[in-house]
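Onboarding guide, step 5: your first structure request.
Type a short instruction followed by the sequence, for example:

Predict the 3D structure of this protein.
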Amino acid sequence: QQFKEYTVDSRIAVLQNLTAFTEYDPLPPEDDVEVKSQGNLRLFCSLWKHCTSDMLDCIVTWEYMWRFIRILYENYISHDDQKETGKRMVKMVVDWARPMLSQFSFKMRRDEDSCDTQLRCLAVRMLLWTESPDVVAEITRQADLPLSELESPIRAVVTAFAARQLGRAEELKVKYWEEVEMDPPVGVEFGTIRQHILYGLCAARDESKKDTPDEFKVLREVMTAIFNYSKPNLISRSFVPLDQLWAFRGASEHVTNMKPAVECFANLPPPPP
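The system replies with structure tokens like these:
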């Protein structure tokens, strides 16, 4: 109950401390409530369940926990011989996301507040990660619609799914250049179409070229173009700082894309003073 009453900054401070552990102890049986140390997997999962049952509606807190649990899952699952801990993590995600999506549905309500909109999108992202059939089917359907017909908040999720799961990254690149404007609109709450395409392109991964330099070819192309400070041209000048943020958000949506994105950024020359 106290955690829910904290400020957002205080919640994040708690999470930063709680998730700064170095040992991935197995989760205890469901009826084992004993916690022997601070900052471990058991406590994190306990807090997740508490926030789920307490119906915490803070998007910043859930976004932090969601990004952490994906990284944890990807790094832990290879050491989880019986896959039980991985299954528990997936169940935790579904236990929060499924009721949330059932409450909000896929469509925005009239006069819906920003928090509910963002929680809906997060629930969709989570259920795509768990490969929930109904959500996969709905986002696949939306991926066949013109981008302009998609609701703005969910559009980035759809482009990322289309680029990564449906293999449409090259098609999206063409659509991106059709959207480029030298004076892009500002003050758009949930981003522009071109920013949503950037998000999707940076989430792309070519599974057929796994473990080769071309696995993240599209991501590297986009990152190089966006952060081309050494030889600015008409293309690089078409990007604004918010575009860069959307690109990084797309790259960090999947754990596998994080490393090549950071490497690409680190190898590019810094911006001029």
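Each response can be followed by summary notes, for example: Confidence is low (pLDDT under 50) at residues 33-38.
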